[in-house]
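Researcher: I'm preparing a figure for a lab meeting and need a structural model of a single chain. I don't have an experimental structure, so a prediction will have to do for now. The sequence is pasted below. Please return the structure as tokens so I can convert it later.
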Amino acid sequence: MGLWEARVVPHIVDRSCGMPQLEPLRTQACDGLRGRVVEIGFGSGSNVGLYPREVTEVVAVEPSDVAWRLSASRRSGSSVPVSRVGLDGARLPLADASVDTGLVTFSLCTIPDVASALAELRRVLRPGGTIGFAEHGLSPDPSVARWQHRLDGLQQRLFGGCHLTRDIPRLIESAGITIDALEQSYLPGPALSRPWGYLSVGRAAS
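Model: Understood. Here is the structure written out token by token.
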């Protein structure tokens, strides 16, 4: 991992993924969380403060030490205890059926082995557990998708492996996880922003 990816990208992600426009989507993804929650791609803690009252503990998986340090003030002010339990979503250091619910926001685009990460998330969920998600990904609009494919390589190089072309609902369902609720739309803004702004927000269960 180079200096740009290790030191600079976490700050960019903190700003871009912490935009106020995304808070309603994060709140929607957090709706229904309860008990012990595993959050994959915790980042700088943008979801802290949005967890429902039913959440008793968050175990966070975050590979970036810089992002974890950026989350310090949010964690210290949280009414819900947050602990860092791992660095790699594809290898969760958690027992089978050991968490009540799961959360992943703006992270499935970047995890290198996303299929394994989703399989791990399914493994650690207790029966009846649900997963809240909010992610950007591949647009169904052919003209937007063409630009996403053209820009994907540059996006990955500049933003720590972030993909524009991952079909989020398909990836989730390919892991044997059933999507119970799904809303998809573009973020408000100019048409030029659409390759980065096609969002999938919802809830799923294994």
